[in-house]
Amino acid sequence: MKIVTVIGARPQFIKAATVSRAVAAQDGIVEVIVHTGQHYDANMSDIFFEQLSIPKPDYHLGIGGGLHGAMTGRQLEKIEVVLIAEKPDYVLVYGDTNSTLAGALAAAKLHIPVAHVEAGLRSFNRRMPEEINRVLTDHVSTLLFAPTETANTNLLAEGIDADRIHIVGDVMYDAALFYKERAIKPEWFDEIGVADGQFVLCTIHRAENTDDSKRLRGIFQGLADSDLSIVLPLHPRTKEKLRELKFEIPANVHIVEPVGYLEMVWLEMHCRIIATDSGGVQKEAYFHGKPCVTLRDETEWVELVTLGANLLVGASASKIAAALVARPLTVIPSNIYGHGDSAVRIINCILRL
Fold first, then answer.
1. What is the DSSP string of 170-182?
2. Does 120 share its domain with 166?
3. Is residue 7 domain-shared with residue 148, that is, in the same domain?
4. Domain containing 198 — which CATH number?
5. Residues with Cβ < 8 Å from 307, sequence gap 6 or more?
6. What's the pLDDT score for residue 333?
7. Quick one: 77 and 148 in the same domain?
8. CA-CA distances (angstroms) from residue 306 to 256, 301, 303, 316?
């Protein structure tokens, strides 16, 4: 059996690595990895692949930047050429990027079965490009690997046949268990004057926050008003917007350069609380037992809100500051995301079917 995996961003490589390890443990499966190049990431060097035990891509399409339609169209065109040449039995896609949709569409038009990992996630906000990508991908997929019962319910509500849906848990939990033992303390940590276990780890990168000056100011005002030590690895998009706004960084916010994944895992494990607009970081906070304050108006990971581990505060300065200071959240361990064997279950399912 041959599987072509299509990915385009660093988080997808980390998710896909869990499945690649499961593939490597099986006889009779060949995996071909296609990197669209959607997100340029300076951290994705040879060291990135070596440290994280991730296979290097077999194809690098070099397609990134530009408008959503143009990017997706160019990716679809080049992925189609790869699929015609490789003739895979399945195309495996992850999450909700333009690369995900392009890979799914290219495969569907060639009548190649599509397997979608992280199927069924919904924010119910159709203004998000990611929401469009994930909905369309789900509806052209043959196998839908749902991480949670909520995701399964969403798919059934949209009329997707139950026999196409498989609740397998979350591959990100697999990754969290694998990489927590390999976490790396950032070299600069001892120099910035924050105490281990006493700082807020913050990430801000979503366009809904970075491209809205009012929301961005509200977030930074909330961080400032908390008067807590904030460690903020600054995303290039956020950095550029702050420069355009001539925004003065609050004194309690320690800006650092973007960090590698293993450094990010260490920061997540050693912080007091996490404030983020990242979907992935919300879950990683839970995996590492940290409360999370989400700087968005909605989340795909509603289970965490229901559990009380995650609090949605939007971009309200008062809500952000109050949540960080009060830290009213509790992180109760549960198996809502599986048992850390999601990748094995995915591969076993593909082989069985």
1. -HHHHHHHHHGGG
2. yes
3. yes
4. 3.40.50.2000
5. 331, 332, 334, 336
6. 77
7. yes
8. 32, 9, 5, 21
Residue 178 falls within a domain, yes or no? no
Q: Evaluate whether residue 332 is within a structural domain.
A: no
Residues designated as active site: 205
| pLDDT of amino acid 254 | 97
Residue 210 tokens read as 């970075």
**Inside any domain, residue 175:** no
* pLDDT recorded at residue 42: 54
- Residue 3's beta-bridge partner residues? 31, 90
Cβ–Cβ under 8 Å, residues 146 and 321: no
Mode of pairing for the β-strands spanning 273-276 and 292-294: parallel
- Given CA atoms 142, 143, 149, 151 in this order, what sign does their dihedral have? negative
- CA atoms of 101 and 120, how far apart (whole Å): 14
The identity of residue 73, as a single letter, is: G
Is 182 in contact with 262 (CB distance < 8 Å)?
yes
* Cα distance between residue 191 and residue 200, in whole Å: 16
> 126: which 2 tokens?
């159709």
Q: How many domains does the chain have?
A: 2
Q: Do 287 and 235 sit in the same domain of this protein?
A: yes
Task: List the domain range (segments joined by +) for residue 224.
Answer: 183-326
158: its two tokens:
């949209």
211 and 75, same structural domain?
Answer: no
What gap in Å lies between CA 256 and CA 99, rounded to an integer?
29
pLDDT averaged per 10 residues in sequence order, the chain, 353 residues: 94 93 94 87 65 88 87 96 98 96 98 98 91 97 97 98 98 95 96 96 92 94 96 89 88 93 96 95 95 95 92 97 84 87 97 90
pLDDT given at position 134: 97
Instruction: Give the H/E segment covering residue 56.
Output: none
Residues 189 and 163 in one domain: no
User: Is residue 6 one of the residues assigned to a domain?
Assistant: yes
Co-location of 206 and 155 in the same domain: no
CB-hemisphere CA count at 13 Å for 296? 24
Assessment of whether the complete model's pTM goes beyond 0.85: yes
CB neighbours of residue 241 within 10 Å: 19
